[in-house]
Amino acid sequence: QTAKLPNVTVLATGGTIAGTGATSTTTVGYTAATVGVQQLINAVPELAKIANVKGEQVFQIASESMTNEHWLTLGKRVNALLAQNDVDGIVITHGTDTMEETAYFLDLVVKSRKPVVLVGAMRPSTALSADGPINLYNAVSIAGSQEAVGKGVIIALNDQIHAARDVSKTNTSTPDSFKTTELGLLGYIQGGKPFFYRTSTRKHTADSEFDIAGLTALPQVDIVYGYANMNTVALDAFIAAGAKGIIHAGVGDGSIAARVKPGLVAARKKGAIIVRASRVGQGILARNGEANDDELDFVAADTLSPQKARILLMLALTKTNSTRDIQRMFYTY
Ligand SMILES: NC(=O)C[C@H](N)C(=O)O
């Protein structure tokens, strides 16, 4: 250990960054989650110059198979490590498909201001111009930096730094897939150093009211997707299966089809919390806009994507059933 260097723990969970393909030109149709954490670290010897890096294999999965239970395990491990004086920051290697969801979950449950950086790759480790090694190098640099303290959970790929709340995967396969909404990215990594230009005004990490310490499961919340000719088949099935909350990923500003509305009203009467979100991807979901939320006792998702609204609603339901309080949470986080 070099005294002056920060101590960064790399928690590996799988994904394409740990994937291998048949040939160097295989950039699709490879196998995700095959390379172990020590091999990932060893592939970037330059890491030793910027941090004392320790690796830990938490899972080895493709991120499309991420579950609530994985999140609880990971969140507890992150909190335990960040409580240690000899850990300055954490990097989590993760598949890109659900990285934005894991990042937002952690943003709401990590009890520390120390940096937590999620990183992945769009190309497998065996590909020509694999993006994993440079992304990992940059992520370790951010996790060990003073600049990243207190910024909330970060996603860093392709030389860009994004806040967990507002970033999403926007392209199926290109290395510049991760974009923040119009709200704007946090900064860049250049020459191995992070440069921050903005922060979110929303609460996160050490200022969050959510605590997973005593939890072994999260309440069931499902998403129903809006489209022309939508019906209530999926909604009714989720409610019958015991959903405690429904995210309605409506068209436009969260509009509800005339023939779907009675199903949502019935679900609310049975006790499920209904959150109106939008499938559009940008903008504020107007409370009392396309639906009278006050009258229907629904919640508006603000600017959260449906998949992130699901996470906030699950955590909200661990604390309250009050739609008033849940709406406050959607305007706070
Ligand atoms: N680029 C990736 O990491 C995609 C992969 N399916 C995953 O999410 O694990």
Tell me what the structure shows.
The structure is a single chain. This protein has 333 residues and is of the alpha/beta class. It is built from ten helices and 14 strands. It has helices at 37-42, 47-50, 68-82, 99-109, 132-143, 233-240, 261-269, 293-296, 306-317, 323-330; strands at 7-14, 52-61, 89-93, 116-119, 154-157, 160-163, 167-169, 178-180, 187-190, 193-196, 221-225, 245-250, 273-278, 299-300. The strands form three sheets. It has an eight-stranded mixed beta sheet, sandwiched between helices. Helix 4 runs parallel beside helix 9 (306-317). The longest helix has 15 residues, at 68-82. The two termini are 38 Å apart. The model has no long low-confidence stretch (mean pLDDT 97). The chain binds asparagine. Asparagine is lined by residues 15-16, 32, 62-64, 95-97, 120, 122. It comes from Pseudoduganella chitinolytica. Residues 220-330 form the Asparaginase/glutaminase C-terminal domain. It holds the Pfam family Asparaginase_C. Its EC number is 3.5.1.1.
Shape, principal axes of CA atoms: globular
Q: Which molecules are bound in this entry? A: asparagine
Largest sheet composition: 8 strands, mixed
As a percent range, the share of helical residues equals 25-40%
Strand element count: 14
Mean pLDDT: 97
Q: Number of helix segments?
A: 10
Distance between the termini: 38 Å
Family: Belongs to the asparaginase 1 family.
Active site: 16, 96
Enzyme class: hydrolase
EC number: 3.5.1.1
